[in-house]
DNA sequence: CGCCGGATGATCT
DNA sequence: GATCATCCGGCGC
């Protein structure tokens, strides 16, 4: 399938886009190994008005500057000193919106992913959770601010999921965002095993 | 099973 | 010096 065009990422509504990304295919080509899968879980971060967003209130620092770029590039950063987290920058230049990719369902490069995750056999935790997913795909900050039509990391078009097949719920680990932590900005494919924290 | 805490470092105050 | 958009292993039930 073709890579998604810039116009897809530059849509205004980051929440709608977070849902549209479900079912699309994410790939990396790192250390000579192709790996990837179907995006199963996402979270929207809605720019300067969103207390959970790194760029809340217009905070534009060395780290967050990537979020202010035109949509269609990656935003990768180190979390808790250990995990790299992959986001897709959306919207247009100056509007710091992004979508955290929280889980994928592996389709290619299983051997490479098992090795990177130091796992013997396949289990959902291989790519369920943003840190796990980045490790499985060999993503680190070298891939920050990369165009999503690059040779090292890209997303290909695929199916769209109807709203009935999507669960909308609150984001993970953003209690510090107070009332904004209650916004239903996390989305995942209903019934899919590759989801970090399914609701009961 | 579920809860708890340690690992670990860039980033910003 | 505090704060994290996390993960895993260990312990107790």
UniProtKB/TrEMBL annotation:
The keyword Protease does not apply. SUPFAM superfamilies: FMT C-terminal domain-like. InterPro entries: Formyl_transferase-like_C_sf (IPR011034), MPG (IPR003180), MPG_sf (IPR036995). Gene3D superfamilies: Methylpurine-DNA glycosylase (MPG) (3.10.300.10). Pfam families: Pur_DNA_glyco. Its EC number is 3.2.2.-. Keywords: DNA damage, DNA repair, Hydrolase. The keyword DNA repair applies. Belongs to the DNA glycosylase MPG family. This is Putative 3-methyladenine DNA glycosylase. It comes from Pedobacter ureilyticus.
């Amino acid at each position: 399938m073709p890579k998604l065009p810039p116009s897809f990422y530059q849509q205004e509504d980051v929440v709608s886009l977070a849902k549209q990304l479900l079912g699309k295919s994410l790939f990396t080509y790192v250390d000579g190994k192709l790996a990837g899968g179907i995006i199963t879980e996402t979270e929207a971060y809605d720019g300067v008005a969103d207390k959970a967003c790194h760029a809340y209130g217009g905070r534009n620092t060395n780290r967050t500057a990537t979020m202010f770029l035109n949509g269609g590039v990656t935003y990768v950063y180190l979390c808790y000193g250990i995990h790299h987290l992959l986001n897709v920058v959306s919207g247009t230049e100056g509007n710091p919106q992004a979508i955290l990719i929280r889980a994928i369902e592996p389709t290619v490069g299983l051997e490479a992913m098992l090795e990177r995750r130091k796992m013997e056999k396949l289990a959902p935790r291989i790519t369920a959770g943003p840190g796990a997913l980045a490790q499985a795909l060999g993503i680190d900050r070298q891939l920050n601010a990369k165009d999503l039509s690059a040779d090292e990391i890209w997303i290909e078009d695929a199916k769209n999921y109807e709203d009935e097949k999507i669960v909308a719920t609150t984001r993970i680990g953003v209690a510090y965002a107070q009332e904004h932590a209650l916004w239903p900005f996390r989305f995942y494919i209903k019934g899919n095993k590759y989801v970090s924290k399914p609701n009961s």
